[in-house]
Specification:
The protein has 291 residues and is α/β, with parallel strands linked by helices. It has helices at 36-50, 88-96, 105-116, 170-174, 176-187, 193-198, 204-228, 243-260, 277-284; strands at 2-7, 11-18, 21-29, 58-63, 66-67, 74-75, 99-104, 125-130, 134-140, 143-144, 159-163, 166-169, 232-236, 267-270. Belongs to the ROK (NagC/XylR) family.
Length: 291
């Protein structure tokens, strides 16, 4: 049985997976952005208090940021603050003496979809995992393309704008955490991303912010499509199960594509495994490291 963690900016999902079946699911909540050190302490405490470690074969992690899956070293922009300070792969192995596998979260989603889901026959594709920020991966010639410095496909790092001499990236302007912060700023009320979408038709503030997010996502999808000539765009994360989101995104991409006078040659679908894609992909890491 594998113990799998899908690390996010506001919580970490946990799954016990045996023979590709979910035996148990759980969640570690922190409800605010967290440092790598604090997250490591929470994961270790969870394993010590909630896991019969002798029943575990492997520990598998899906993690935001630039990940060297062989060494476990992390760097780059991430929903987990100071992610470079803790090597989860090395330290979890030292503590529990189990094989530890780790990979970027969007790449885990892509692995799940390429092996078992909606990207099995895709030559060139884009996987967007929309959570606290924006995770992304590009598939080129049926392989995940990482680049020489692990930065290929990291569209969450795209420059959106400079504000007060600060570089604001795509994740900061278009992720769910940004949506929630902006809603609170203009309305004075606190709502989750899900609640903001649910109030789209009756709340003008929600409608304005959702439309802005959809435009930003559509713009980046179109730009990537002209870069890798993608066949398919897959959407992961909790928002992937929201039909309003998918309808708005498809509609806006088609609208903008018509203005380009170019033909749209790709479709936009939700990940087959929705919000479980990251966990399933993490579990797959222990089977085959070639992707």
């Amino acid at each position: 049985m594998n113990l799998c963690f899908d690390v996010g900016g506001m919580s970490t999902k946990v799954a016990f997976i045996k023979n590709d079946a979910f035996i148990k699911k759980d969640i570690i909540k922190y409800d605010s952005l967290i440092t790598a050190k604090n997250l490591f302490e929470k994961i270790v405490n969870y394993i010590k208090t909630s896991v019969e470690i002798n029943n575990i074969n492997n520990i598998c992690l899906s993690f935001p940021g630039l990940i060297n899956n062989e060494t476990g070293e992390m760097s780059g922009l991430s929903a987990i603050q100071r992610n470079h300070e803790i090597n989860f792969k090395k330290k979890l192995f030292e503590l529990f003496h189990k094989n530890v596998y780790i990979e970027n979260d969007a790449k885990c989603a892509a692995i799940a979809e390429m092996r078992k889901g909606n990207a099995i026959d895709v030559d060139n594709g884009l996987v967007l995992v929309i959570g606290t920020g924006i995770g992304s991966t590009v598939i080129i010639n049926k392989k995940i393309h990482k680049g020489n410095h692990l930065m290929a496909g990291e569209i969450g790092c795209f420059l959106e704008k400079i504000e007060n001499e600060k570089y604001l990236n795509f994740s900061e302007t278009s992720g769910m955490y940004s949506l929630e912060k902006r809603y609170k700023k203009i309305s004075g009320n606190t709502k989750t991303g899900k609640e903001i979408y649910e109030s789209y038709l009756k709340d003008e503030n929600a409608k304005e912010l959702v439309n802005a997010q959809i435009y930003s996502l559509s713009k980046s999808i179109i730009n990537i499509s002209f870069t890798i000539d993608t066949d398919l765009v897959l959407i992961g994360g909790a928002i992937s199960s929201n039909e309003l989101f998918l309808n708005l995104l498809n509609k806006k991409v088609k609208e903008l594509y018509k203005l380009s006078n170019m033909k749209q040659n790709f479709t936009i679908l939700k990940c087959k495994f929705l919000n479980d894609s990251n966990l399933i992909g993490a579990n797959e890491l222990s089977k085959n490291s070639s992707y």
